[in-house]
Amino acid sequence: MIRIGMDIGGTGIQMGIVNDQGVILAKDGVVTHTDIPFSEQISQMSECALNLLKKNNYTLQDLASVGAGVPGVADQRTGVIPKCVNLGWENVPFREEMSKHFGGRPVFIDNDATVAGLAESVAGVSAGTSSSVFITLGTGVGGGIIINGRVWNGAHGIGSEIGHMTLELEGEPCTCGNKGCLERYCSATAIIRQARQILQFHPESMMMEMCKGDLSAVNARLVFAAAKEQDPCAVKIFRRYVTCLAQAINTITAILDPEMFVLGGGVSKSGAFLLDAVREEVPKYALFKDAFPLPRIEIARLGTDAGIIGAAMLH
Amino acid sequence: MIRIGMDIGGTGIQMGIVNDQGVILAKDGVVTHTDIPFSEQISQMSECALNLLKKNNYTLQDLASVGAGVPGVADQRTGVIPKCVNLGWENVPFREEMSKHFGGRPVFIDNDATVAGLAESVAGVSAGTSSSVFITLGTGVGGGIIINGRVWNGAHGIGSEIGHMTLELEGEPCTCGNKGCLERYCSATAIIRQARQILQFHPESMMMEMCKGDLSAVNARLVFAAAKEQDPCAVKIFRRYVTCLAQAINTITAILDPEMFVLGGGVSKSGAFLLDAVREEVPKYALFKDAFPLPRIEIARLGTDAGIIGAAMLH
Known about the structure:
Chain A has ten helices and 13 strands. Chain A is of the alpha/beta class. Chain A folds into two domains: 2-120 and 305-313, Nucleotidyltransferase, domain 5; 128-299, Nucleotidyltransferase, domain 5, CATH 3.30.420.40.
């Protein structure tokens, strides 16, 4: 059997035919249109998927399921997406609408970070583990939790929203209305915010030269590159980032203690520079570090394919 | 079939014969001796249990398992207890030693908070839920996590240590070596510490009269009783307590989103006074509160029997 996985993004929707081992057999995609009705959006996606099946000599008989990863919150139980800002969706019956096009084949949805975590646990760096926590370090911070080999997103579908765990009482105000959420400390957005603040007082920082004096050109990669070169301001931001991430990892360990943490998202592309620092920092705060092994920490391996693979693996 | 559950404490070890519904059929106990060798401690416990079986006309044939809840960390996989300060144990082979006395019947161990959480989920307030998080609010703060009806204590046995999740970066120093752990804010110890601090500057507080000027007599019950009477200092401590607990509940929800939170331990005996305040506070910080239901929050129901019942239910 084969499965269709759809990675729904604000600019494009990537999709693929995936086998049971999590290997992508064929890929295609459509541009995201937000100015057309929801049912039309779904028609365009399903048309692309059905063509992809046809081109690769598959029929609906070969199709076990269709899955989609959504950049927002998704109700796995009802198949409804309560809100997805990037797509302009509010309370859309995704599963119901999508399944019309696939002859009643089961349709699954989940949050994109959960989907990426599932992909890594099937065909990526956490393959072979029975529990893992995936943390996307991107514009925001998201999470995907696998327990006993299956996605865990909570009893009400609001779990694995790791970006909104409280890291600091009365800390940085968050877009969610709370304060001190992890996302305010460990997203690319947080890195950029801190760099812009610090550059106002330290124009001598290497970062200023790297962005050619244009603060709007500062991004997380630039800050980490300057930290690698030992620029004191960038090092300060990087160290703070690592400490916050390590504290979050320790909090999740104190609660869940997964076999492995997988770091994904844009910021994780800094690779060993980030990974080594986090691996060094985590044990400083860890409980029982002398009596029990700590969870392994790794960088995600599947890159952008994770969205397609994980969506296909939903069931 | 029946099971033996043992609730191991620093002053006494309570035990009982428990049926599959989590009902205690008979109870007994021994005094904890820490000045005798480990094997002797185990002999005393098992002798008590074997006598209890005999008195109630059961044989080892009727016994499905023996379980024990330990006030410390327990390695469920090996049956070894790395450290249990109250009993003076360090790296003791609990399972191996105990099973010698029960003709090879399986012996299980787990942390006492986990055991209490399991008991509530089998025969207490969270019975019928498939996922729950039990939080003991006592001298320390502990946790027990049930997912899909089974205890989840992590891949390395260091999960559900909710007392050591970070609530505040660079916060109150904790005995574990880290700073800002939940236990520093939501234990009875934390309430007492704050009351003693505040009473130094506010001798006019009702709490001073209640403890007859003896700060060593201040306890959590006294502080909450004064808060109920609207004593401003006590109200301040109580409000802070509720805020911290609500933030912890929201962090655990952002990660795990259980069906129910169960509050146990000494501080939870304040009942509706605490429960109502926490239920009112949690939604203030919750994500998605308009789109999804939040986990229920309840007070534990089984009291001190939870230790026996939950230990018996381990498997």
